[in-house]
Design goal:
Elements: H1 2-21, E1 23-29, H2 34-49, E2 53-59, H3 63-76, E3 82-86, H4 90-94, E4 100-101, H5 103-109, H6 121-126, E5 137-142, E6 144-149, H7 150-155, H8 167-179, E7 184-186, H9 191-202, H10 209-212, H11 226-240, H12 254-258, E8 262-268, H13 272-278, E9 283-286, E10 304-311, H14 316-329, H15 332-342, H16 349-358, H17 360-363, H18 369-374, H19 390-405, H20 411-433
Parallel strand pairs: 1-2, 1-3, 7-8
Antiparallel strand pairs: 3-10, 4-10, 5-10, 6-8, 6-9
Helix pairs in contact: 9-11, 15-16, 19-20
Length: about 425
């Protein structure tokens, strides 16, 4: 019995030593609901594939909250190894001295170089430095799409297989939806992103000078051009006539669509998995509408979603574990599975091809819309928006446009104010980060 007890104790000690030898990788993220399940499954899959490292995903709130938590952790010296940051935080991460470690650099140091050419160009170019190095790992890249309730379309006498393509057709469709009893024919999520930023890119109109901030810090907003004013006037008129209902900031409009209250919404392609899980009606996604009298429209939409940033100051062994994890989730089959599960872009060309061969797009009409919108040839106006203090600028967009829905401001006044207040923040960012 003593020998058995000793052998058992030795076995426990060996297991404990093995567990202690495992390097833990902290991954802070902003994915909730069905997307949190996806993140946990990715970590579990990697952890089961090897014994040296354990990736621990930690939900830190929505994009705004997780980035704030990450910044605070960096300042306190308690930063995670990996931080998921949405696209509007890119400039802030780039100019944060000593905070990040380039993904390309980390992968090369661990003999696992990434092939940037393997990524969808619009995705890779947004997160690539002038020296050609990838700054962060494309992960849940998304773009804006239009979702619509096919059952509501049928009830309104609209063809559910022929969604509206132009804003004129949107007007006609929402009038029919209202006539059929809909209290909310159309809403949106993330107003600034969908109706100002993506709208501008889709029409090949700049959001800011210096190629939307890619070419320097001395940049100014251009969000009050005639076309953008025209669009806000159109939405304002639709709101007055009960065709468009503003539900609130960020993702506040999603529940109204998923519940069936609103028949049309605009939002992230990454919302697909949640809608598919929760909606009790037949729905589809399609391209954003455009004004067909604007030359060159439609062009391409801007990138959204987030990437994975590696933070500085960690032991070499941690970076080796992060590199192995990045190599794991970047495998074409894994990337394709993630795309099909979530609605985010497939990120790499091979992942898109794998998805195509499975027949997924035939079985899920519209699921290829985000890819089709992003693989178009981008222009200087449409390859993305890289502005400092972009998170605060989006808050200003919300604050000023909300005055339009309450009748306290005209669309022109609202956008003029966005530009004036936003430019003050851009100047502040320039002063802080100019070398």
């Amino acid at each position: 019995m003593k020998k058995l007890a000793i052998a058992t104790l030795v076995g426990v000690n060996v297991l404990s030593a093995s567990a202690l030898a495992q390097t833990e990788i902290q991954w802070w993220h902003a994915m909730d609901g069905a997307l949190n399940d996806w993140v946990v499954d990715l970590a579990d899959g990697f952890n089961a594939s090897q014994k040296d490292y354990k990736v621990v995903p930690v939900y830190k709130g929505n994009y705004d909250q997780s980035m704030t938590a990450g910044v605070a952790a960096v300042r306190s010296g308690n930063a995670p190894d990996i931080l998921q940051v949405f696209e509007v935080g890119t400039a802030s991460m780039i100019y944060a001295d000593g905070v990040i470690k380039s993904v390309s650099e980390m992968m090369e140091e661990n003999n696992m170089p990434l092939d940037i050419d393997a990524y969808i160009p619009a995705v890779a170019s947004y997160y690539t430095a002038p020296n050609g190095k990838l700054l962060s790992l494309p992960f849940n890249s998304s773009t804006t799409v239009m979702y619509y309730n096919k059952d509501a379309f049928k009830k309104a006498g609209l063809d559910p297989e022929a969604p509206p393509k132009t804003w004129e057709e949107i007007r006609t469709a929402t009038e029919a939806l209202k006539a059929s009893g809909s209290k909310c024919p159309m809403t949106t999520t993330w107003f600034g992103w969908t109706q100002l930023e993506s709208f501008s890119s889709w029409h090949n109109v700049p959001v800011a000078t210096k190629n939307n901030g890619f070419d320097g810090l001395d940049v100014e907003l251009l969000l009050n051009s005639p076309l953008q004013v025209r669009h806000l006037e159109n939405l304002s008129d639709m709101a007055k006539n009960g065709l468009f209902v503003y539900k609130g900031r960020a993702d506040a409009g999603s529940p109204a669509f998923v519940s069936g209250e609103c028949a049309i919404t605009f939002g992230s392609s990454g919302a697909y998995s949640g809608i598919k899980r929760d909606a009790k009606f037949d729905f589809a996604e399609t391209t954003l509408p455009y004004y067909d009298d604007v030359e060159g429209a439609p062009q391409n939409t801007v990138i959204g979603g987030a990437t994975l940033w590696v933070l500085n100051g960690k032991p070499a062994e941690n970076y080796k574990g992060v590199a192995k994890f990045f190599e794991y989730i970047s495998q074409p089959k894994i990337a394709a599975q993630s795309h099909m599960r979530t609605g985010y872009l497939p990120v790499t060309k091979e992942a898109f091809e794998i998805t195509e061969k499975t027949g997924f797009y035939d079985e899920n009409p519209g699921a290829d819309v985000p890819v089709e919108q992003m693989i178009r040839q981008a222009t200087d106006n449409t390859r993305g928006i890289r502005l400092g203090n972009m998170l605060q600028i989006r808050t200003i967009m919300d604050e000023e446009t909300e005055q339009v829905w309450t009748g306290k401001q005209t669309p022109k006044q609202a956008l003029d104010n966005v530009v004036e207040r936003g430019n003050a923040l851009l100047k502040r960012f320039e002063r802080t980060n100019s070398k």
